[in-house]
Amino acid sequence: MTELMPPALPKACAEVRLAQPDDAVAGQPARFVAAPASTQEAAALLRTAAELHLTVVPRGSGSRIEWAPRPRACDLIIETRKLDQIIEHAAGDLVVTVQPGVHLDELQGKLAAEGQRLALDPPGGGTIGGILATGVAGPLRFRFGAPRDLLIGITVVIADGTVAKAGGKVVKNVAGYDLGKLFAGSYGTLGLIAQATFRLHPAPAASATVSLDRPDPQSAQTAALTIGRSPLAPSAVELDWPRADAPIRVASLLEGDESSVEERTGRMRDLLKRGDVEVAVGPFRLGRPQLGGSAPTLLRVAFWPGQLAAALGAVRTAASEHGLDPAISGSAAGVLDVSLKHGSSVDAVAGFVAALRAGLSELANADAGMPPSVASAVVLDAPSAVRDVVDMWGPVPSLGLMRAVKDQFDPDHRMAPGRFAGGI
C-alpha cells in the first residue's frame, strides 16, 4: 500500500518527501523525510508532527545515524542539511555561531582563514548538530574537552515546536538553563538542535608527536601519566593497541609556535628516555577507528584516567574469555574505542560485552569513594543480530532523573523514542 503524505506536512515545511528504504534509522524504516530551511520552519514542522502524533528522528550527515539502539518508531526524519549557515564568527571574541547542518571540515576551513579553530577532531568529522547530539570527540579531548565543554550557547526546538535558547555569545556568559549540557549526547531524544555557539582557540602554527611503544597496560599507563602530568602541555595523549600480541603505542601531541614545539619536543624525548625508552618524533597520525558507518561492533569504554591499565586489562580479559581480539584505541583522558572484527559470532560478542561490564563494575567498586558510574561500556554500533541480544547502553545511574528530563521536554515520547538509555 502506497504511503500517503499528510497535507499538513508540506504546509509546515517546503521540502518533504516520502522516505526511501535507505532512510531507515538503525534498521527502523521511516515514513517521511523533511528538510527545514530555518529555525522557524523547523518549529512549524515539529508543531505539525505533534498534532499528527508522529515520532521524529533528527538526522545530520547520517554518518552516525546507526549509533545507539534503533528507535521504536520513526515516522518523520528531520534532516538538517539546509540548516547549514555560519551565522556569526566573532573572531575578536574567539566565538562562532553555526546552524546544525554545517560540516565540521567546512567550518574549520573558514576559521583557519582567521588563524582559529574549533578544538574538535572526531574521527570521520560530521555535522555540528550530529557531533553535539552524539557527544563524539577525538584526540583533542585530552586538552579541550568534549563538544559540551566548548559549547557556550544553544538554540533548540523541542517536541511541541517551542524554540528555546540558553547561554550566550560570549564565553563568560553563564546565565540561563543549561540546555547545552542536556542536549549534548542526547541522540535527538530531547529535541532538534537549531543553532550552537562555541568558544574557539587559536590554530597552532606547528605540531609534533612524540610516541613510544610499551609492552603492557601498566607501563603504558605509567608513560601516559608521565606525559599528561608533565608541564609540557600536550594537546592529546593517545593509545593504540591493535591486537593482544602487539605493543601498546602511546603518543603525545604537542602544538604551538614552531620554536615552542621544537623545544617541548626535545624535553618530552628527554623525559621519556629515562628508562631507555625508544622515542619517535613525527606527524600525529595515531589511528582511531573511523567512527560511524558500518563498523561491525564498536564500543566506547569510559573510566577514570588513573585506571587506564585496569581498563585495558578488563577489555583484554573479557575478550580472551570469548575468543575475541579487538583493536583498542583512544585517549588517556579516560575514553577508549574498542572495535571487534568482522565475523565475530553474536554469542561471543554478547558474552564479551557482559563480561566487560562486569569487570568494569568491579574496577569501579575497587576504589573507595568512587561511584559505580566511573567505568562503563556502551555499544555504539553493532550488526542487527547483536543489537537484538545486547543492551547497547548498559547500566545507567540516575535513570529516574533522566526519564524526568525526557518527560519534561518530550512528554509524549515522540523524539527518537527508545534511542537513549533505559529505552528513553
What does this structure look like?
This protein has three domains: 232 residues, Uridine Diphospho-n-acetylenolpyruvylglucosamine Reductase, domain 3 (2-Layer Sandwich), CATH 3.30.465; 77 residues, 2-Layer Sandwich (Alpha-Beta Plaits), CATH 3.30.70.2190; 96 residues, Ribosomal Protein S8, Chain: A, domain 1 (2-Layer Sandwich), CATH 3.30.1370. The radius of gyration is 22 Å and the shape is globular. The chain is of the alpha+beta class. The strands form four sheets. Strands 15-12-14-13-17-18-16-19 form an eight-stranded antiparallel sheet. A five-stranded antiparallel sheet has the order 5-6-10-8-9, sandwiched between helices. Strands 1-2-4-3 form a four-stranded mixed sheet, covered by helices on one side. Strand 17 and strand 18 form a beta hairpin. It starts with 7 loop residues before the first helix and ends in a 15-residue tail after the last helix. Helix 10 runs antiparallel to helix 11. The protein is built from 13 helices and 19 strands.
List the helices and strands and how they pair.
Blueprint: H1 8-12, E1 16-18, E2 32-34, H2 39-51, E3 56-59, E4 76-79, E5 86-90, E6 95-98, H3 104-112, E7 116-117, H4 128-134, H5 141-144, H6 147-150, E8 151-158, E9 163-167, H7 179-183, E10 191-199, E11 201-202, E12 206-214, H8 217-228, E13 236-241, E14 248-256, H9 258-273, E15 280-282, E16 297-302, H10 308-321, E17 327-331, E18 335-340, H11 346-365, E19 376-381, H12 384-387, H13 399-409
Parallel strand pairs: 2-4, 3-4
Antiparallel strand pairs: 1-2, 5-6, 6-10, 7-11, 8-9, 8-10, 12-14, 12-15, 13-14, 13-17, 16-18, 16-19, 17-18
Helix pairs in contact: 8-10, 10-11
